[in-house]
Amino acid sequence: MKTSLAEIRFAEPDDDAALSAVHEASWRGAYTGIIPHKSLGAMIARRHAGWWRRAIDRQAAVLVLEFNGEIAGYATLGRNRTQALDVDGEIYELYLRPEYQGVGFGRRLFRAARALLTDRGLGGVVVWALADNETAMGFYGTLGGADIAEGAETFEGRSLRKVAFVWH
Q1: What's the confidence (pLDDT) of residue 4?
Q2: How does residue 1 score in pLDDT terms, banded at 50, 70 and 90?
Q3: What is the spatial distance between Cα 36 and Cα 53, in angstroms, rounded to a whole number?
Q4: Please, what is the Cα angle at 136 between 152 and 68, to 5 degrees?
C-alpha cells in the first residue's frame, strides 16, 4: 500500500458519519477486552455523527487522514489539559481503522498533529495511552515519547492505568 496517496486535512462537516465509523472501528479494535463492554459501548455511542458535526462546527482541531477517498483515521488536539506536565500541547486522540494500522499512516498523522500544535504556538506535546493497550504503548514509545507520568481511568469500578508520553 502506497501511503503517499494519503492526505491529511482538517475535518469538514460532511465527514461526521465517516468520523463516527472510524471512531467505532478503532475503539472496538483498541479497547475490546480492556475497557469493560458496557462502558466501551456507551463511549462509542456518544460519538455519533451529530457529536462530530458539532465538534467540527465549533472549530475543534480535528485532523483526518484520507486514503483513496475514505477517512482512514483522525486526530484531535489542543492545549495540554494536565497542568503538572511541562508542555503546552496535547494530542487527545489519534486513531486509525484497524485495516490501516501498521503502514505508516499513524506516524504521518502524529507528525501532522504535532506540527499543527507547533504552528499554533504550543510547544511540546503530551499523549495519554492506557497501559493495557500494547499497540499504543509500542507506537508512542517507537516515536520517541518519554513515559513520564501515570494516571488512572475508572470504568465500571475497574481502574485502568494510563501513561503520559511527552515530546519536548
Answers
A1: 60
A2: low
A3: 27
A4: 135
